[in-house]
Amino acid sequence: MDIFETIVAEAAGISAESSLADVLSGRSDILELTEKSHDAAIRPKQPGGLTHSERAALACRIAKLNNETVLASHYESLIGNGLAAVADTEFDGGADNRLKAILRHTDLVTVDPKEAVSGDITALRSAGINDADIVRLSELIAFVSYQIRVVAGLRLMVEVA
Amino acid sequence: MSEPIKEFTTVIPFWDPRVTPVELEMATDEQLEAMKVTVSDTKIGAYTLALALDPETLQQRTPLFNGIMYGRGGLSRAETELGAVAASVVNRCIYCASVHSNRYNQLTKDETVMDSIFASGDGAGDDANIDPRQKALLNFATKLSRCPSEAVKEDMERLVENGLGMDEVLDLVLSASLFGWANRLMHVLGDPIA
Fold first, then answer.
1. I want to staple A144 with a disulfide (CB 3.0 to 4.6 A). Which of A51, A62, B29, B172 is the partner?
2. What is the value of pTM for the model shown?
3. Number of compact structural domains in chain A
């Protein structure tokens, strides 16, 4: 894997010619695992109850909630037909109880995770989401939150390098 | 069952899952591989068994976690733990904060830094009674952990002014970011119990 072609390096604008190239190369294992984690969270071989397209739409929503436009565009390009609304941060799921529960949880854990309580997991279960899908959703939200911060940090490094 | 712990502590609690973890005897080959265990291994924690419900992600996350927290070179082990604690304070993940403040104290043999950080809350270390380099690290990691990130160029410059090399800065970015991930699992999927 070329670490300068990974999503985080490209989103931060760091190339093999960048002054930070050596520093990034020193942690090439982490960049590779970050890319593999992206694939595991966004387009897993066994997606369970969260389709690839739905995952991309949720990731796009999470990026928007973080004002992260570059990653939002990346995820937007992976959204399939009919799911664009899921990435709209004003949309609350409407009459779809399952989607409504997923969007509420995604917004809460993305923006204000400290406010999450056990009732939030109960609410997902009540909306028909099984425990494996609750963990899948949690990993998706948590991974994208990580990825967004890595990119934000790398961009600031570029500014002072 | 006792009530969940609400205040920061350096004493590591138990973690009580809110989802039903995988039963080790029932685990699939993929789940076992992701947990890096054999069926005879009985020490595997509830946290790993809960995350094994999504083995594909766990498979990548474990080596990523170990690489960031225990990788050679770059930021010292103790300062890497500081980044983890800063994120955990912002996200109020009592469990992660306890594990990593405990580890910090073991590494530095100095409990005053964590006491001061816990007492000052998530004010980016401004009120904490710690040295300027620690304050710069804490300030940056705290701001990066908010949503959206509030870290700006001046915070990064402050790291450099306090003697951090870019390799160390990268490790701090990775450690704080990693706990943006870990906190969103530990604090959301379970309770810290005394």
1. A62
2. 0.97
3. 1
Cis, peptide link before residue B21, omega less than 30° from 0: no
Pick the CATH number of B74-184 from 1.20.1290.10, 2.130.10.10, 3.40.1190.10, 3.40.50.2300: 1.20.1290.10
Residue pLDDT, tens place only, B11-34: 999 999 999 999 988 999 999 999
Chain A residue closest to B71 (CA)? A27
Q: Which residues of A touch B180 (CB under 8 A)?
A: 142, 145-146, 148-149
Please state, for a pLDDT cut of 70, what percent of chain A lies above it: 100
For residue range B165-182, list pLDDT tens digits in order. 999 999 999 999 999 999
pLDDT score of B36: 82
Listed residue (B88, B105, B101, B79) closest to B159, CA to CA: B79
Instruction: Chain A: give the shortest CA distance to residue B36, in Å.
Output: 16
Does A12 score more than 70 pLDDT? Answer: yes
Which CATH number goes with the domain that contains A37? 1.20.1290.10
- The whole-angstrom separation of Cα B76 and Cα B83 is 11
The total number of residues written for chain A in this structure:
161
The predicted complex's ipTM stands at 0.98
Asked if residue B186 lies in contact with residue B87, where contact means CB atoms within 8 angstroms, the answer is: no
Q: Are B63 and A33 spatial neighbours (Cβ–Cβ below 8 Å)? A: yes
